[in-house]
Amino acid sequence: MASTIVSLISILLICIAIAQGKNTLYTTKEFSVSSSVNNDGICKTIVETQGYICEEHTVTTEDGYILSLQRIPAGRSGKNATKPPVLIHHGLFCDGIIWLLNSPEQSLGFLLADNGFDVWIANGRGTKYSSTHTSLSPNDMAYWDWSWDELAGYDLPAFVHYVYNHTGQKMHYTGHSQGTLIAFAALSQGKFLDMWRSAALLSPIAHMKLIPSKLTRAAADLFLANDLYWLGLHEFVPYQDVAIKLIEGLCNTLGVDCGQILPLITGPNCCINSSRIDFYLSHEPQKTATKNLIHFSQMIRTGKIAKYDYVNPLLNVLHYGQVVPPTYDVTKISSEFPIFLGYGGQDFLSDVEDVKILLNEVNAQNSTNRVVSFKEDYAHIDYIASFNATQGVYDTMISFFNAH
Ligand SMILES: *[C@@H]1O[C@H](CO)[C@@H](O)[C@H](O)[C@H]1NC(C)=O
Ligand SMILES: *[C@@H]1O[C@H](CO)[C@@H](O)[C@H](O)[C@H]1NC(C)=O
Ligand SMILES: *[C@@H]1O[C@H](CO)[C@@H](O)[C@H](O)[C@H]1NC(C)=O
Ligand SMILES: *[C@@H]1O[C@H](CO)[C@@H](O)[C@H](O)[C@H]1NC(C)=O
Ligand SMILES: *[C@@H]1O[C@H](CO)[C@@H](O)[C@H](O)[C@H]1NC(C)=O
After folding, report:
1. What highest taxon heads this organism's lineage (predicted)?
2. Ligand 4 centre distance from Cα of residue 214 (Å)
3. What domains are defined for the chain?
């Protein structure tokens, strides 16, 4: 049965690929707003328009990706930050704009600045404002040859070193979703302890074995991302025809109503302002590497937090010097390092059962350096876009920063 579905979907995919006749094709049908956004940079587009000072910065990773960072060095009053820097990192399919899309009182990027912090907003490789490289172009397949291993191993250190060097201060870190996974990976290797004061990790992604979304699980079980990769689609564009058709096909196969695609994947978000959704869609979603999605599907199938599995033992040996990809051991994260964890009862990606395993592994019950905030009614997107995340989560998180 499963193999029949796989071959049916593969045939469907091949048809789409032939019909398109190229590696990437941007359709504007459903997300036409995505292409109409001006290219002025995040400061001009969305920060200065709200009356804040904003600086554009770039940093080049060791593997040549040129990434943008925005700094909000002062609150709306114009008063310079009196508190340490906070580096904030978005999740999968998002970029730094995600922290700025609601009103200043509701958006973490502005809220931190108004609370006296020196705010630094990261944009990971492949997103709209971080899409250049010292020698590659996004049209090259090689540009998309990465997964979150590289986000943890190259992008994050580049951002952290840049902010540390530029400000001369230890910083706090906030990540959402994939932005938490790369922090867990780095912290498990003992990185950043000399440069980070603390980390606040919202909708934490670590173990993914128990995720309840039928759709996400089926995509992982059917190796859909692998199919795309072998068809030569190394750049994954979520608003592209091939992605939309793929998801529609899967919904039909599973008999689920895909009119409600976001809650099917992220869980039922309680507190998103429905009159702002068109505005969100004018800035998100962002592209990612198909290889990154393969890496996530490996996590869903195995439940492990490990490096990308090349499957072929020779390739694993070539990359890692061993047949099996090395794991990231979150139990190694120092109990001396302060961590805030925020997770929601309705989240289908950072689902409660998987998060419980993580909480146990990072000794979350030890109240000395751990703060856990659980919101029964929040799902994945509520942590970045809900109209009451300030009261729900950010206020507690800011108190945690102030205490460290
Ligand atoms: C704020 O900081 C900027 C640069 O860091 C400096 O030029 C300016 O004088 C400061 N403003 C105040 C009011 O301290
Ligand atoms: C830190 O800053 C100094 C002076 O601005 C610069 O010379 C140095 O290369 C920087 N180091 C890193 C790791 O960015
Ligand atoms: C929802 O968004 C609209 C339009 O931007 C805004 O006028 C309204 O105040 C928002 N509602 C809440 C609860 O934040
Ligand atoms: C709790 O963490 C502190 C350091 O942060 C450590 O000294 C202590 O042993 C831990 N307690 C337990 C029960 O693990
Ligand atoms: C957020 O708003 C929802 C819907 O109005 C409400 O049920 C929930 O209690 C609110 N949460 C917080 C923390 O204010």
Report:
1. Eukaryota
2. 39
3. 2-403 (3.40.50.1820)
